[in-house]
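> call design_seq(struct)
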């Protein structure tokens, strides 16, 4: 890739030498030398920049109608619940849930997994495998 084409691609992407250097983790001075034609652009960098510029041209931003924009459309009610109970209908709207179920919900009130064996304090560990 020649320096002129590199500058064209960066203009399409709205990038400057500092942006390329930051993305690549490369010294800014080297990127500036590529842009000025004082050093050859590495093949992998040239291919990557070219692909980004082509993708940027082919995939323009979406055309949004201000009146029908998703930002202005109501999302529906917000329903906060920990988990669906058996036999309960599925809620409508946006449902906020924790990222994982809590152990006490899964195992009852003991806080242990179903079938987990607890160790008595007066007994030592026998280092035997325990069921999950």
């Amino acid at each position: 890739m020649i320096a002129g084409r590199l500058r064209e691609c960066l203009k399409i992407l709205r990038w400057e030498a500092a942006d390329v250097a930051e993305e690549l983790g490369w010294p800014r001075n080297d990127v500036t030398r590529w842009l000025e034609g004082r050093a050859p652009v590495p093949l992998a960098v040239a291919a990557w920049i070219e692909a980004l510029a082509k993708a940027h041209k082919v995939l323009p931003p979406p055309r949004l109608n201000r009146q029908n924009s998703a930002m202005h459309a109501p999302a529906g009610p917000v329903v906060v619940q920990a988990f669906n109970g058996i036999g309960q209908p599925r809620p409508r709207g946006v449902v906020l849930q924790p990222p994982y179920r809590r152990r006490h919900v899964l195992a009852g009130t003991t806080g242990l997994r179903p079938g987990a064996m607890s160790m008595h304090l007066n007994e030592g560990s026998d280092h035997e495998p325990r069921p999950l």
